């Protein structure tokens, strides 16, 4: 299997005054191409911290994180930003859509930052929205969409640049049951049809039901790593 990312003996300690919080304690993890992985565990177990390290959003206190063949500890802040822009997609719990932009313009944003020309990026954005059943939202701004619609547009933005790895932090946390299921079906379709690799940080059983690999965390450690047969996932 092709390795997309690895964490080797990774620790992460946060300091607040005299208080130290050990968020990760010697974590080893390998993310393979075509994984549809859920990092699960209670609040404070370290799953979001690990996701941030895999996404080059933070640095470990010790240990090594490698993403797409690059050792993140050896990269400058600018180089890590370039890696995120070129090869990673992010879906956040809070959607993070730009309120003054339409859905199409929000999807175009990453493409513009990558240097894609205006005509090509508009065509790509509309194509992605249409392919994901979101064409009717193209000219709506976030305040004209439901929470579920905003999160689906956030997924479209994350995948429009065709990243090798998409990292999603609690993507269903603010959604009702129907919207959450629609979102999971959307991401699973991207995974199955385009081979997109997804890693989720979650405590939502709806995501776990769809995941084909479940990595459980407690107290900053991985306590189990199970792979399900694709046919058995919801």
TrEMBL record:
Example GO CC term: the record gives: plasma membrane
Q: Which PROSITE patterns match?
A: ABC_TRANSPORTER_1, ABC_TRANSPORTER_2
Q: Tell me, what is one Gene Ontology molecular-function annotation carried by this entry?
A: ATP hydrolysis activity
Q: Does the keyword Transport apply?
A: yes
Question: InterPro entries per the record?
Answer: AAA+_ATPase, ABC_transporter-like_ATP-bd, ABC_transporter-like_CS, ABC_transpr_LolD-like, MacB-like_ATP-bd, P-loop_NTPase
Cited Pfam families = ABC_tran
**ABC transporter domain location:** 8-234
Report if keyword Transcription regulation is assigned. Answer: no
Keyword terms: ATP-binding, Nucleotide-binding, Transport
Q: Which family does it belong to?
A: Belongs to the ABC transporter superfamily. Macrolide exporter (TC 3.A.1.122) family.
Task: Provide the protein name.
Answer: Methionine ABC transporter ATP-binding protein
- Record the organism: Sandaracinus amylolyticus
